[in-house]
Amino acid sequence: MGPHFDWAALPRTISLGIQHTDQFHEASYTMTTSATPNYGLTLHSSETSDRLEVQCKHQNGQLYMVPADRSWVCDVELRHAHVLAGFFKELGGLDLPAVHEIMNRWGLSFRERQLAEQDADEA
User: Fold this and answer.
1) Which of 2, 10, 89, 108 minimizes the number of CB atoms within 10 Å of its CB?
2) Distance CA 82, CA 90 (A)
3) Is the pTM of this model over 0.70?
4) Is 30 in the same domain as 72?
């Protein structure tokens, strides 16, 4: 029998810094090195879409975010944040009891915050 290699000892997350003009963007790419599922939140981004994997032992799903009527205004690198914050802002604004009940049942809430001073001028 040959030498044993411990695949589980390999790092599961690789962080990559990308310099883009005068801003620094951080991307997180996950590499599965064993049969163990990748629990938690994992974001996959491209020029045309973002995919957020959400997984634990009891639930497993994905959210897809693509350019749309309300999401075109934000930079590609931050599209996922823009889409999710905007969606939850509008969903909460509907003031529907069924939406509030579902969010309460799952322990989820969304609070809109003020934009950073330097960003407020652009909005």
Assistant:
1) 2
2) 12
3) no
4) no
